Amino acid sequence: MENQPTSKLVTVPTNTLDIIKLDDRFLADALALSNEANWNQVADDWAMMITAGEAVGFQDISGRLIASALTLPYGDQFGWISMVLVTQLRQKQGLATQLLNSCIQRLEDKHLVPLLDATPAGENVYRPLGFLPHFGFERWEHEAVENIFQTATQRNNKTGMLEKFDPSEIIEKDRKIFGGDRRTIIESLIERSSEFAAVAENNGGFLLGRDGRTATHIGPISANSPKTAIALLNHALTTLSGTVFIDACNHQNKFIVQLEKYGFRRQRPFLRMAKGYTKKLGQPEKMFAMAGPELG
Q1: What is the value of pTM for the model shown?
Q2: 14-111 fold
Q3: 137-289 in CATH: which number?
Q4: Rounded to whole angstroms, what are the CA distances from 219 to 29, 37, 193, 233?
């Protein structure tokens, strides 16, 4: 049986691959990458981000997308980096580093400060590149939110919430609280969370969200007080069922205590980081839940 061909994985050197720009033609492949990583994105998320920003990646010799990253310009000061993904068989070959450096360079060429939300493992990568920590948050999960409010009266109680609101007001509130203009993202979230989105009376805050592959994501939640943030949350929870994710800010203690009372459990931590930027980002005191690590 000598000289018989053997089956083995052929690894193509990364320096033979060119960074390509992604558009809607890559939606299926991009979704396959995030599914493989067990992330929560759906096709609408990828379409929203590709439309709002600039997505890049690598293809293998067969034309299959094997790595991705994207930037989202948030006004004239900041840019967001997210969706840095590499298919499992091509990890630890420098692909993610090349795409990350490309994203950083692209933002800095536009005089935008790169921002991102890092996992603990990612933090070790980003700190040597000059990214500085700002504040932390954690993903909280509940697998059956319909059980939180047991009675019909509780589930139908939407006191103090306005179900119709002016999108331009939400966009402006988000710009001030988040610290950057993410108009396209907020418009999309308003549309996708129409069944449970809410605005507090007296200019007190708002809650948005979106559907996901494994869970509904609630966020952003912005409010002037924990009481208002919890009221907004209650409004959403009385409408939803199934699994829900909330990326809650670590500094909002009263809000977190309420999540614990409702039976949410911690899933994983994140850290908001900015490259070479030490000033306060937005108004963290009014941030209760994030739109997600991919959106800020």
Answers
A1: 0.90
A2: Aminopeptidase (3.40.630)
A3: 3.40.630.90
A4: 26, 21, 10, 9
